Amino acid sequence: MIRSLINIISWRAFLLVLLTLVLVQADDFVISDVKIAVTTSDSVRKLYESIPYPSSFDKPIQLTSGDDFKMIFVVNDKQTQKGVQPHQAFLTLTSEKNGNQIPIIIRVRENGKSKVELDMKSAPDELLSSPGNYSLDLIIGTFSYNDPLKYHVATLEIDVPIQSSGHSPVVYGPKPEIHHIFRPDEKLPPIWLSYSFVAIVLIPWVFLIGAWACIGVNVSLLARAPEPSLMSILFLGSLLAIEILFYNYWTHLNIFQTLTWLTGLSIVAFITGQKALSDVQKWRSLGLR
What we know:
CATH class of the largest domain: Mainly Beta
Distance between the termini: 128 Å
Structural class: alpha+beta
Shape: rod-shaped
Largest sheet: 5 strands, mixed
Membrane topology: Multi-pass membrane protein
Oligomer: single chain
Protein name: Ribophorin II
InterPro entries: Ribophorin_II_3rd, Ribophorin_II_C, Swp1
Order of helices and strands: HEEEEEEEHEEHHHH
Family: Belongs to the SWP1 family.
Number of helices: 6
Pfam families: Ribophorin_II_3rd (PF23860), Ribophorin_II_C (PF25147)
CATH superfamily of the largest domain: Coagulation Factor XIII, subunit A, domain 1
């Protein structure tokens, strides 16, 4: 019996503490240091007033073409009087003629200070197309408080020429066709230029054959020395294969394929060339040259 009574008292104490915390969190916040200003397109100040919260500005604020409306304020906690940053804050312009609302998002800093601006040069189309009186209200809400704050700041008198776009903008619908322009293919060089480089590539072979003809080539050694002749043939064949590889690179091979083949052929040319030169030196020492 006593244990049950203690449990009931404990639950009641817990609920009392929880209710106290909820009531503390339910305290709302207040607005302070409300200032409004209106400047013209020539940077001439038409209006600058401080408004004590929760009072409203008693006269309609006239905004014409080129005017710039600014408003600054501070959001404070009612209990601590410290600045707070709400989760949502925005101004609403409610038309007294048709009831349409135009929201303006506000960014509030961590210290509660904020600044909002309405430039008539870049005002929303809904505002410019329907001039008249608008109720300017500040709405602030956050998760820490149960009820949002709605504060009527002033009445704006929009006095601008009616701007009609002529037709309603289409938000969803077919878009204009995109015509892709691709870069034209690169032009090949003239045929005479290609043949000129072919001739330049073949000229060393012409000089090689001419040099052999001048100094004399002992072809009979190739028949008498089968092993050395094989190395010489492989060396000359590797040089010819490298030339053919360069031709294939010009026509269809890419750089990676060419380097792969060139690495293998270079190794073969180096080994066979070194052996062929050693054989030539041996022939000269034997007087066979």
